[in-house]
Amino acid sequence: KVDTTLNVGGTYFTTRLSTLRRYEDTMLAAMFSGRHYIPRDAEGRFFIDRDGAYFGDILNFLREGELPHRDRVRAVHREAQYYSIGPLLDNLEDIQPLTGEKRIVEIAKLRAMQRKARFAKLKICVYKEEMPITPYERPLFNSLRFERTESEAKLFEHHCDVDVSFGPWEAVADVYDLLHCIVGDLAELGISAEQQCIGVCDKHLINHYYCKRPIYEFKITW
Questions:
Q1: What are the residues whose beta carbons fall under 8 Å from the beta carbon of 114, sequence distance 6 or more?
Q2: In the chain, what's the furthest Cα-to-Cα distance?
Q3: Is the sign of the CA dihedral 113, 118, 122, 127 positive or negative?
Q4: C-alpha distance from residue 141 to each of 134, 138, 155, 173, 199 (Å)
Q5: Which of 15, 94, 108, 198 could be cross-linked to 220 through a Cys-Cys bond (beta carbons 3.0 to 4.6 Å apart)?
């Protein structure tokens, strides 16, 4: 129950040893088991030479099982890999965008096997906000969010006719940044991905509202 102060890449944290040791088979549990030397900074804080921007997310999971907002999932996943926190990795892989990337690989492999090919094509929807519009409203509402009650929002719920969807994506970065991240993550798995926008979803929702989410074709190659 002793408080422990940490300096993670210049960002300071205070927590309990029991929190750091929550899961036995992790790097943090091993580091703070008392069996290993851990360097300290000039103020006596334990020093970890790692970017501290996402360490708070790691601690929140260790404390209460809290998961990060999906804007932060990919970065926290990388930190969880570094610290070898298996339970956190398992949870994050069931959240977008990671679960979508897993789904892309699963569908592409199955489709390629069925066609006895080394590549497969998938339709993927990547969109920032749940904001159905008509072509005439686009100039007015392209950057604004509609305020709706829960019952009103349900009128706009639907699934585009695609293999995998990513969204609504509320990150500051735009859709093209997310597309770049998806392609980059697949490349790390040894999978080549090319993507191009092939249109928008024209599904009619209610009154004069149409979906208009962008649809991308991904060519996945091994």
A1: none
A2: 67
A3: positive
A4: 10, 5, 19, 18, 20
A5: 108
Calculate helix-pair angle for 73-82, 98-115, nearest 10 degrees: 90
pTM metric for this prediction: 0.62
Per-residue CA distances from 115 to 119, 124, 189, 217 (Å): 9, 20, 22, 18
Structure tokens belonging to residue 103: 């789904």
Give the whole-angstrom CA distance, residue 88 versus residue 26: 11
Pairing of strands 119-126, 164-166: parallel
Distances (CA, A) of 114 to 9, 119, 164, 214: 48, 11, 19, 27
Query: Average pLDDT by consecutive 10-residue portion of the chain (222 residues)?
Result: 88 96 95 94 96 96 92 89 94 81 91 92 82 46 50 66 82 76 88 94 80 92 88
Q: How many CA atoms lie within 13 A of 52 on its CB side?
A: 13
Give the CA angle between residues 99, 167, 83 to the nearest 5°. 40
Cα–chain-centroid distance for residue 161? 22
Residue (of 66, 167, 187) closest to 124 by Cα position: 167
Query: Please, where are the H alpha helices in the chain?
Result: 17-20, 27-31, 55-64, 73-82, 86-92, 98-115, 138-141, 150-154, 175-188
List the one residue out of 166, 181, 176 whose CA is nearest residue 129.
166
Token couple for 160: 């585009």
